Amino acid sequence: MRKAVFVSLAAGLLLAAPVLAADAPQASTPYNCDFQPSCEVAPGFYGKMEQPVTSKFKVSIGGFVKLDYVYNSVNLGPSGALTPGSGKIPKTTSKEGEADQSIFTARQSRVWLKVAGPGFLGAKTNALIEADFYGDPSAAAESPQVRMRQAWGSIDWAKTQLLFGQTFEIFGPMVSSTIDFRHGAAYGTPNNPRVPQLRLTQRIDLSQDNALKLVVGLQDPNQNGNNNAGGTLSTGTFGSAVNVAGQAMFVSKALGVAPGLWGLSMNSLTAGFFGLFGSEKVMLAPGNKAVDSWGYGFYSFVPVLKSSDGKSRAMTMSFEGQAYMAANMAFNSATADTMVGTTEDPKAAKGYGFAGQLIFYPIQDLGITAGYQRRNAYNYSDYTNRNITISSQPTSTTLTGANFVKSSTNIYVNVSYDLNAAVRVAAEYQNVNTQYGNNTPGTSGTGTANIGRLAFLYFF
Q: How far apart are CA 320 and CA 35, in angstroms?
């Protein structure tokens, strides 16, 4: 009986073999048998896994694997692989300021899906969903949470685009080309957070080589309070209304193109203005009162040494810079605080920022970047003299001018080398500094961190 069962099973497998073979994916290359255990073991597990990706629309997939080693001369906490989003470095007299950190992390790895959909009234339709694994810095290293970075759809005509969903906000177009993914947001390039928005972009051709790019959008900096640094009692805010932001940029092909962020894009001469206006309610003892949020600035990207053919990075150089003035914009780190003044007369905390960087590629695969950034409080006396009591039943908090952030600066230099089309190795040095005002007697007014970073990336 047992023999008959085995014969039947063997016959069934032989009959099924052609079907299984027909369904099995065909590898374009043989197994990699250079290492043990043998590639014959567990086929399909990190082996022959090719499968077609299907959808009713055209879909492409991409992203990268990123491993970082970071050394911090001070303890920057559970998210120490990134420079602080607040711009606050622990004081040199604090316990954190007297400690250091050594960190490995792969949480900045990223994956995205792009969709090219059906046409609409002569336009193309597109969508993108992008995620990383930086959802919760307190989670265990082996189980970081997936985090939505971007999720948007767009309708694209030749000169007009309508975008809806979540992506980088409109204020502050410069992104510092640092290896750490903070990209200098708290140090003069407040390009974060990525926020839900409705955005209209229009290109107006002035000539064959010159054009204007106009952007206007409605956006919510809070994402229901999750992204707003001002959404706690410590700052006294409970959420801003939807704001409006815009850009007006002059774009020219006259100087050719040169590398932008990470050398992944080739950009033309761009210069123009950006701005934002909104309103944020605050929780005050006498009642709720709105404080305006606003900001304006200037941005420029200049190809100093242009690409020889519009594609090669060899012997190219670019300069990128911006400067801005802002008020009550802690939600994107443009200012370090939200409110100053008194409970009876709250005012927006004002600040300014500026940044500049050079990106140089002596050869196609070797990139060198250096930059300086600074975010500064505008009127120190407003911060020193503030005295605001915030009520939230059953507790209350009083804000005083003690230890406010006068300035946050970031000096960075990094070098990257592409081993091939997929693998990149990069190293970076950062010096980040915070100057505090109105300090408690006997405490330091300075926090400084020296940061070394080594990164390995695999783009796919």
A: 46
397 closest CA partner among 197, 227, 233: 233
- Give long-range contacts, CB 8 A cutoff, 24+ apart: 308-315: 310/256, 310/257, 310/266, 311/266, 312/364, 313/259, 313/263, 313/266, 313/361, 313/364, 313/367, 314/361, 314/362, 314/363, 314/364, 315/361, 315/362, 315/363
Q: What homologous superfamily does CATH list for 58-459?
A: Porin (2.40.160.10)
What pLDDT score does 26 carry? Answer: 42
Greatest Cα pair distance, the chain, in angstroms, is 95
401 versus 298: which is more confidently predicted?
298
- What are the contacts of 224-229 at 24+ separation with CB within 8 A? 227/193, 227/195, 227/331, 228/330, 228/331, 229/85, 229/86, 229/330, 229/331, 229/333
104 by DSSP, 3-state: which? strand
Helix, coil or strand: residue 284: coil
Where do the domains of the chain lie? Answer: 58-459
Whether residue 320 is predicted with pLDDT greater than 90 in this model: the reply is: yes
DSSP 293-315: EEEEEEEEEEEEE--SSSS--TT
Question: Using CA atoms, how far apart are residues 259 and 360, in angstroms rounded to an integer?
Answer: 8
In Å, what is the CA distance from 43 to each residue of 9, 40, 206? 22, 6, 59
Under DSSP, the state recorded for 10 is: H
Question: What pLDDT is stored for residue 379 in this prediction?
Answer: 85
Q: What is the DSSP letter of 65?
A: E
- Spatial contact of 361 and 315, defined as CB atoms under 8 Å apart: yes
Confidence class of residue 86 from pLDDT cuts 50, 70 and 90? confident
- What dihedral do alpha carbons 179, 247, 354, 333 form, nearest 10°? -70
| Helix, strand or coil, per DSSP, at residue 441 | coil
The CA radius of gyration of the chain, in Å to the nearest whole number, is 26
